[in-house]
Structures are given as C-alpha cells and as structure tokens.
Write a structure and sequence with these properties.
Oligomer: single chain
Structural class: mainly beta
Order of helices and strands: HEEEEEEEEEEEEEEEEEEEEEEEEEEEHE
Largest sheet: 4 strands, antiparallel
Shape: globular
Strand content: over 45%
Number of helices: 2
Strand order of the largest sheet: 1-28-27-26
Radius of gyration: 19 Å
Length: 329
C-alpha cells in the first residue's frame, strides 16, 4: 500500500531532491533510431531494439552502460522488446518482419526460437509466471504464445481498436486498452468480456501495472494520465501536464513514481498517489519508450532521431542517434 502522512511527505521531499540534482547520460547503442528499451529483472542488463534490425544488450555497472551483445536475426526494425519476468537471461523481441524471437543472452549468436506472428505486432507482454507471451497486432488480433513449446496456443480477433495489453494482479483477467477510450477487462484465458471502463475521452493508448500490480496507469490521446486501484478497479487520480497523446508509461521499483512520455520534449515523473509532479526530464526529441530500473530510481529512455517541434533540437538529436539515455545518475 502507498504510505500516507509524514512518510509520504518525506518520500516526496527525498525523491524531488534526488531527481532534481540528477543528470542524463547518453550511451551509444545503434546505428539508427532506437524504438524500445527494457531492463532485465535484476537490473544488470538493459536491452534496446532499433530500426537497424538489431537488439543490443548492455550491462549496467558503476553508473555506466557497456555493450555486451548484438542480437541479430530480424529482417526489419525491432519494435518491441521484453525480458522474461524472472529469468534474467531470457528476452523476447518482435519486429516489423512479423516474427517473434526468443533469446538467451548466454548464447547470443543464435535465437532460441523464431515464431511467425499473425500480422505486424505493436504490443507485447509476458504473463507474470513467465509461461505465456501475449502479442497484439495492427489488425486488433491478440494471440498467446507458450514459452516452453514456442507455439501460438490461442488467439482472438477483436472488433475494436486494441492498443496496449496486459494481465492483472492475479493473472486471471486480461486487460486491453482501446480506440474508444475504454479499458476492456476480459476473463483469461477465454477472453470473454467482463467489464468495460470508460477511461479517456479519446484513444486509450497505453497501459502499465505497478511492480506489485496494486495499481495500474493508462495514458490517452487526450493527454491525460489516469491511475487506478487494481483490486477495486477504482479511479485514484488523474493529471495532465503533457500536451500530446501519452504513448509510454513506466512505474518505478516501489510503484510510487510514474514516468510518462508523449511527443512533448519532456518526460513527466509523478507521485502515484496524488499525481503531483516530482521531476521533469528534458529531451532533445520525443521519447518512444521509458523504463525504470527494477531496484533504483534510474530511468532509461530512447527518443526519436529528430524533433518535429524545433530545428535546433533536430540538429542536436542527430548527434545521439540510436542512444540509450539514463536519467537519475
């Protein structure tokens, strides 16, 4: 549970002070712009995917990232990347080439498995026990891949726009954000509809659960960020400091901070209980993806090559094409 009163005030004061004096460092990773970034469960490794068709794994030590492996095999851009929830060596990637690849970084020269997907996947998530990977494609088809057999075990075509997806805190329900601004909650594994919750006045784009899955957050095309109690399915707070549609969200390790990115040239960091602003991270280009470290207040993010807002920012961002950025050092 989120603490209250004096403990809350002390927490807010400390993280504001710590993040207020933090800096951002760029670490070279790719030859072209990076689309996605994710930490493994221990925080020892971070992986990023890029338009250059590779996934790069870097180790984190002494406030630095060091390149370890280049995972090659995809024939087009790597659009999504996600680590196994509890195995620090296993990760999954999906690409515009319409394949899902599984990797073991102990043998990075080859893929563990390559599964042809039904269409171009735009969202991917793991079940918390690591048994299943869910994929959502551009045609609103959601399919489920068995991690051990590497087979698609089920799929379902939806008649509405499906955006980000995920399992709830018990793994018994499966959530889908939609183009009508709602959160659709279904039974798992049947995907029979249970509940539809109005969440945004425009497209509901992104969905993230806190590490303990006691809260979840949604971001929409209305530039709103909503935070919910996952057990009660009750609305906790809402805020809007970004001007563009919210496209990426990440909870920190204790579930008390939420980072959000859009096409604004900033990342907003808020206190989950109230939505209060904790910090703002300035960016040279809009962030594609944000990801907190699993045990530290250290935020990784990747950005577009060029900003459409400002020519100066565009020139500056050319210098950091394909970088993974760390804020909180």
């Amino acid at each position: 549970m989120v603490a209250a009163g004096k403990d809350t005030a002390s927490y807010i004061e400390k993280v504001k002070k710590d993040l207020g004096r933090s800096r951002t460092k760029d670490f070279s990773a790719h030859n072209s712009k990076a689309h996605c970034v994710a930490w493994n469960c221990t925080g020892k490794y971070i992986a990023s995917g890029s338009l250059d068709k590779t996934a790069i794994v870097q180790s984190f030590k002494d406030e630095r990232l060091s390149r370890e492996f280049s995972l090659k095999g995809h024939e087009d851009a790597v659009d999504q990347i996600a680590w196994h929830p509890s195995d620090p060596n296993m990760l999954s990637t999906v690409s515009t080439d319409k394949t899902l690849r599984l990797w073991d970084i102990r043998t990075p020269q080859k893929t563990v498995a390559c599964i042809t997907t039904k269409g171009e996947v735009i969202n991917m998530t793991w079940k918390s026990d690591g048994s299943t990977i869910a994929l959502g494609n551009k045609d609103d088809l959601v399919c489920f891949v068995d991690y051990k057999t590497h087979k698609i075990i089920s799929d379902k075509q939806f008649d509405f726009e499906v955006n980000e997806i995920g399992w709830n805190n018990t793994d018994q329900h499966f959530y889908l954000t939609s183009g009508n601004g709602s959160i659709h909650i279904t039974e798992y594994p049947s995907l029979e509809p249970l509940l539809q919750i109005p969440a945004h006045t425009a497209h509901c784009i992104c969905l993230k659960f806190s590490p303990d899955k006691q809260h979840f957050a949604t971001g929409g095309a209305d530039a709103l960020i909503n935070i919910w109690d996952a057990s009660e399915l009750s609305y906790l707070t809402s805020y809007s400091r970004l001007e563009w549609p919210v496209r990426t969200l990440s909870f920190n390790h204790d579930g008390r901070l939420l980072a959000a990115g859009s096409e604004d040239l900033v990342i907003d960091i808020a206190f989950v209980e109230t939505g209060e602003k904790i910090a703002t991270v300035s960016c040279n280009a809009f962030p594609f993806c944000v990801a907190w470290h699993p045990s530290q207040n250290l935020l990784a993010y990747v950005t577009d090559d060029k900003s459409k807002h400002n020519e100066k920012h565009s020139r500056d961002s050319d210098k950091t094409t394909g970088c993974v950025k760390l804020f909180g050092l």
